[in-house]
# Entry
Amino acid sequence: MEKLRIVGFGIAGATFAWTCYLNKVDFEIIDNEEESSSHVAAGLINPVVFKRLTKSWKVDQLMPFASDFYNQIEKILLRKILSHKSILRVFASIEEENNWSALEGDGRFSEFLNPPKKIQNEYVHAPYGAGVVKTLGHLNTRDFLTLSKAFFLHKGYTFSSELKADRNYKTVYCEGADVLNNPLFNYLPMRPTHGDVLIIHSKDLQIEDIVNKNMFILPLGNDCYKIGATYNWELKTKNPSEEGKQELLEKLAAFTSFKFEVINHEAGLRPTVSDRRPLLGEHPEQKGSYIFNGLGTKGVLIAPFYANHLLEHIVHESPLDEEVSISRHLKHYNA
Ligand SMILES: Cc1cc2nc3c(=O)[nH]c(=O)nc-3n(C[C@H](O)[C@H](O)[C@H](O)COP(=O)(O)OP(=O)(O)OC[C@H]3O[C@@H](n4cnc5c(N)ncnc54)[C@H](O)[C@@H]3O)c2cc1C
# Structure
């Protein structure tokens, strides 16, 4: 198998590079080193969709794969990149608490739920208690990207900033929302979603788990917390938005009361697709050009399994799952 070129080094590109590495497929990386969705992401891996109280898409398949993948990388890097925390879903009412109890009785959720508990924290208002979701926790995405790059450079893989036209290479485009600037693949129905997060510092709060109530509070250590995130389908910039910041501060004030200082405000564009499914496959006409994209709001959970799925397709010509194959959007190409 000849060398692959991977364009973009966010969660998709880095995960695909690791998959190549683990399968002994040679590669090089083209990345413009811009801040992206992957840098600002909270990195949460949540198996439950709180709004609908359903399981996250394909979580039974994706979660064990992601767990093995990140554990394997931690062993290679000799560094922790996952932090194993539970997610506490604060109930807004007795009704929510009752609905959650129904989930607990449902065997399909048993591996993801622990019994509800009271939150013993004077600054978090949770009179109805909280459901407890067992999960892999969260991936420190910045560490994952930085350590992965350092590792690959050390192993002699090349990183460059400019993609030169060369038909001899197979190229895998992992460009996130920037795919809208790629004439090869911008026919695909990518509808990026802008998201803001804030980093705050507070000596008061002292929580160790991830707390969620219409937003999340993620403990980062050293009395710092990431809070987020907003979802804005109109904003097309990667810049932080003042309205996003205000929305987060209002949501936080609705169920907490503690002193804090905002120390950073970050934002990114999630690569979300109109049908909410990943985008994998080869360009309909330009052979050798592939896409790995559409990771949407759950890149950390989805990327490992589908990076492997795409590599199998490229190397062994195994068929792509129709639900994720870009062939489902062929009508947009011909339009
Ligand atoms: C506020 C926020 C919170 C989030 N929280 C979570 C979360 O808790 N859990 C979760 O799983 N997901 C979360 N996400 C979603 C997650 O960030 C995305 O699913 C994931 O980062 C997408 O990764 P990507 O590699 O496809 O795209 P990107 O992160 O956009 O990376 C693409 C990279 O490729 C580079 N690039 C693009 N085109 C080129 C080119 N032509 N040449 C060179 N380089 C190029 C870009 O500069 C960029 O660095 C969040 C997103 C946001 C915005």
Remarks:
- The longest strand covers residues 261-270.
- The chain has two domains: 4-41+141-189+274-334, 86-134+193-270.
- The chain has a mean pLDDT of 94.
- Residues 86-134+193-270 form a domain with the D-Amino Acid Oxidase; Chain A, domain 2 fold (CATH 3.30.9.10).
